[in-house]
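Journal club side-thread
Mid-discussion, someone asked how the predicted structure for our own chain would compare to the paper's figures. Pasting it here so we can look after the session.
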Amino acid sequence: MSIDPQTINDAVPQGWVDTLAPTRWRPYLRLARYDRPIGFWLLAIPCWVGIALAHLTRPWQMFDLVLGLALWIGALAMRGAGCTYNDIVDRDLDAKVERTAKRPIASGQVSLKSAWAFLLAQCLVGLGVLLVLPPTARLVALGSLPLILGYPFMKRITFWPQAWLGLTFNWGVLVGYVAITGAITPALLLAYAGLFFWTLGYDTIYAHQDKEDDALIGIKSTARLFGRHTKSALIIIYAACLLLLAFAGVEETAKHADQAALVGSWMPVLLFAFFLSEQITRTDFNDTASCLRAFKNNKTAGLVYVIALALGPFMLRWVEAMR
């Protein structure tokens, strides 16, 4: 069977993987999803949220920039490793689903032995990033391994694999925050819970692309579970996300009596709410292109949120100083 990688629905058309990368590397880069970079952003953004949340009432230092870069590299390595592991486990199922049948392992472009070797190489990069972290943050980061290993099996046993992904993909908020503060606090747990609901929502939208094929082969998802009630479910899910993130900011600033930090933690939530509400109101859950557009919108939504969270208190203090 002739495989045309350009027909993979959610890949970036004519991206650097298919135009600049050496030909023999391309199947491996596709295996790690470098042709679909949004996953890297969605894994890195929670890490940066953790750093920004910790700095609502703390001064920024040079180490914070190093940490942010290290966690970005870690997100690249571990998202690639996670996708490789997922495709190894799902190779037989992927071959039965139209959107995933052209993935490198399912299509025979990458052998199983080569995929395992590639997985190990990416894990070694992740290990290098782990060594940059403070000891407590290292232990927290290692706590994500059972979630990563268990994820590919969830869609076989529960209609809530998106919930498992929410626990897994947002673990970085714990790592980023603990790397700064050295502690797990109520504010951090509220933020983790809020981001969990964010992922539950956007991955439900993503899963609507495969719901027909999933039903035929017995794969479970919240898209199938919610069905025609998806819009109502997303209203509840995203409302929980926004409220929990708002309360996280209140909790983080409560002991410091810093009005600028408090207001600066709420403003990003309002901006975030705009993007999430658009996903609910504008998405046709029976149209693949519409679902993919809404899913990819989360990169912009997440970046706006984390940048506003990091800069909000500074902007408010600057406005006060100018009066």
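Post-session note: The longest helix spans residues 288-322.
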